[in-house]
Each structure stands twice: as structure tokens, then as C-alpha cells.
Amino acid sequence: MARARIERAVAPRRQLLIAAGVVALPSWSRVDAAPAASLIEVWKGPQCGCCNDWIKHLQANGFQVRARDTGNADARARLGMPIQYGSCHTALVAGYAIEGHVPAREIRRMLAERPQAVGLAVPAMPVGSPGMDGPEYGGRKDPYDVLLVRKDGSTSVYQPYR
Question: Longest C-alpha distance within the chain, in Å?
Fold first, then answer.
């Protein structure tokens, strides 16, 4: 009888926690599980081979991709990514702009950390970055930085690649 009374008192709270997404999962399962299923919307040129290779990189790393072959200048401006960090494609994931050949690993990290920012950028098209790493580059890997672009337009190095 007392157990039934306790269960009736606890059940609404349990339902509220479940509805709010608060569940008891091991900490290692929370970082990769949700971001891996994230949808990334990409704006690119229709014939861009490196853009298509970057999309394959994202898909191989568990992201769902919706590609739009309409170019990216309008998307970049609409999402607030400053032109000086521009590249050949612009993307949107969970409210963040992604500009250029940003590795999936750093996108996942950003989604887990949720910084106050416009998003991430890899300006230009560095050889060796995802999508710029095919056999035609002969294994060459240039150093580059993934930048965290803040809402005021300033940046900091989010992850260096050397």
C-alpha cells in the first residue's frame, strides 16, 4: 500500500524528467550520441568536387546531410558568417554556421560544448582538410586552424591541425 502511494507520487516526476530528456546515461554515451544524428544543411556549388567530398566525410562520421546546389554566399550572409572566413561551402547545424572544410570531429565537439558563437570556420581550402584530402593531392597536408567565430566577428583557434 505504501509502495503504491510512493510510486504514484514519483511517476509524474519520472515522466517529466523523461519528457525533458533527462535520462541516466553513462557520460561517454551523451557526447557522441546526439550530435552524430544531427542534420547538417549544406549550400554549395553544383559541380564542386571538394564540397561533395566534405559531405561524404560528414556522412561517414554519422551526420545526415541535406545538400543544396545553389551556392553559398547568401547562406553565409544570412547565418552571420563574416566573408573573410569564407570558403566554397556553408552549412548550418543546430543553429551554428559551418564554413569550409571543418572536420566532423570539431563539429561534434562544438555541439557538445554549445559555445556562444556564430559557428566554426576553416577559411580558404587547405590541402589535407576533409574534402581536400583525396588522392589527387598526393598525401600533402598543409597546416590549418579551425576557428571559432564569435557573434562579434572575432575568432579564436578552436583546434589547430599540424
Answer: 74
**pTM (two decimals):** 0.77
Can you tell me which residue has the cell 554556421? 97
The single-letter DSSP state of residue 150 is: P
Cα(160)–Cα(41) distance, integer angstroms? 25
For residue 110, is it within any domain? yes
Distances (CA, A) of 54 to 45, 57, 59, 155: 13, 5, 9, 23
Q: What letter would DSSP give residue 85?
A: G
Domain extent at residue 91: 34-161
101/51 Cα distance (integer angstroms): 8
Q: How many independent structural domains does the chain possess? A: 1
Q: How far apart are CA 84 and CA 67, in angstroms?
A: 23
Q: What is the pLDDT of residues 122-143, one digit of tens each?
A: 999 999 999 999 999 999 999 9
